[in-house]
């Protein structure tokens, strides 16, 4: 079967989607390039980066993958899609430029700096008839997949409170300016997971601590969902005693798990889905969470992490063979909550969201 793409070129829809990558910093180098290179249905064909040292890294780590200086040059090579992994304040401009060039787009978090910008980008993709997805890879964290399975199976009863944390002690390292601060950086994942698990939000209360740089390094958000359930979310670079990754409380039990999903560490160590095969995403037994109904609780096997499923699903969507792995309108919903959290932190009050 042959499909027609926007530039008039005809391609076999069984062929791998020709992917480019914009940016080869930490995110591009470790989160995107290895997963794209290993993804079924994808072919990494080029990286947009002007820095000589980045170009050398690409040549060494992905032999045969070229480097170019602009999105226009990337599109001219025949790329069909692009992943954006650049500083937060460039995401909207680069995503919209790529869409105007006829490229399908995956954009890293934060998808946009605010909800109006996110909404505008989504509308542009709809007008252009192009696939667009925010890179919410942490929907496929091992522990979050386990939480969703426990909730779906009714193990915890009706969920009344969802507690989630990305906390670390690295005051000299973060928050990086490229992420836009902790609210936008960690908060994009924290809020997305809360919305996936518990649905729309009716009100938001937030607190943050600002550095002299203007970036926030410690954030707390309390979300009240339309269902009546509550999410308590923490993100911090200055926490010497991190709390549990998740504590999910329901009417018949609570699930608690500590530590952090291991897929990031595996990628940074040079391991990929291609090198590990079926062992990719597996968590050690000692990291199992427990379901508590009083007492010590019962250990629960952790489902394997599955970041490796995102790009094959996106490629299938580009070829018209399945849904997007993440709906771009979800990025608008997340940005709307983050906008309310910023307003709450600045004004010191609860912010109601439109119903």
Q: pLDDT under 50 segments (min length 5)?
A: 1-10
Total helices: the number is: 11
Number of strands: 17
Average pLDDT for all residues:
95
The shape is globular
Main beta-sheet strand count, sense and barrel state:
9 strands, mixed
CATH top level of the largest domain is Alpha Beta
Strand content: 15-25%
Description:
The chain is an alpha/beta fold and about 350 residues long. The protein has two domains: about 1-135 and about 310-325, NAD(P)-binding Rossmann-like Domain (Rossmann fold, 3-Layer(aba) Sandwich), CATH 3.40.50; about 140-305 and about 335-350, 2-Layer Sandwich (Dihydrodipicolinate Reductase, domain 2). It contains eleven helices and 17 strands. The protein has helices spanning about 25-40, 50-60, 70-75, 90-100, 115-130, 140-150, 180-200, 265-270, 275, 310-320, 330-345; strands at about 1-5, 10, 15-20, 40-50, 65-70, 80-85, 105, 130-135, 160-165, 200-210, 215-225, 230-235, 245-250, 255, 290, 300, 350. The strands form three sheets. A nine-stranded mixed β-sheet has the order 16-15-14-13-9-12-11-10-17. It has a six-stranded parallel β-sheet with strand order 5-4-3-6-7-8, sandwiched between helices. It has a two-stranded antiparallel sheet with strand order 1-2. β13 and β14 (about 255) form a beta hairpin. α4 runs parallel beside α5 and α7 packs across α11. Mean pLDDT is about 95; it is low at about 1-10.
Keywords:
single chain, 355 residues, alpha/beta, Rossmann fold, Dihydrodipicolinate Reductase, domain 2, six-stranded parallel sheet, 25% strand, globular, disordered N terminus
């Amino acid at each position: 079967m042959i499909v027609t793409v926007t530039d008039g070129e005809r391609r076999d829809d069984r062929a791998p989607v020709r992917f480019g990558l914009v940016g080869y910093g930490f995110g591009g180098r470790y989160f995107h390039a290895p997963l794209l290179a290993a993804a079924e249905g994808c072919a990494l064909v080029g990286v947009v980066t002007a820095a000589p040292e980045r170009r050398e890294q690409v040549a060494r780590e992905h032999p045969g993958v070229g480097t170019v200086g602009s999105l226009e040059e990337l599109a001219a090579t025949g790329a069909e899609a692009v992943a954006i992994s650049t500083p937060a304040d460039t995401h909207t401009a680069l995503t919209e430029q790529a869409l105007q060039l006829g490229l399908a787009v995956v954009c890293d978090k934060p998808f946009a700096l605010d909800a109006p910008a996110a909404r505008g980008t989504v509308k542009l993709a709809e007008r252009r008839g192009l696939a667009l997805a925010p890179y919410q890879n942490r929907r496929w964290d091992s522990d979050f997949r386990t939480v969703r399975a426990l909730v779906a199976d009714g193990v915890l009863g009706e969920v009344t409170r969802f507690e989630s944390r990305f906390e670390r002690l690295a005051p000299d390292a973060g928050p990086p300016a490229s992420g836009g601060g902790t609210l936008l950086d960690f908060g994009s994942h924290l809020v997305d997971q809360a919305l996936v698990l518990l649905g729309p939000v009716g009100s938001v209360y937030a607190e943050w601590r600002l550095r002299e740089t203007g970036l926030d390094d410690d954030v707390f958000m309390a979300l009240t969902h339309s269902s009546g359930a509550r999410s308590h979310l923490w993100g911090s670079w200055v926490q010497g005693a991190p709390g549990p990754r998740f504590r999910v409380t329901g009417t018949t039990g609570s699930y608690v798990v500590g530590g952090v999903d291991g897929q990031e560490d595996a990628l940074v160590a040079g391991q990929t889905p291609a090198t590990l095969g079926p062992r990719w995403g597996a968590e050690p037994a000692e990291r199992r969470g427990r379901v508590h109904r009083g007492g010590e609780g019962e250990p629960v096997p952790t489902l394997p992490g599955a970041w490796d499923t995102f790009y094959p699903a996106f490629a299938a969507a580009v070829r018209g063979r399945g849904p997007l792995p993440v709906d771009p309108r979800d990025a608008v919903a997340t940005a709307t909550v983050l906008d309310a959290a910023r307003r709450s932190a600045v004004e010191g009050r609860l912010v109601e969201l439109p119903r």
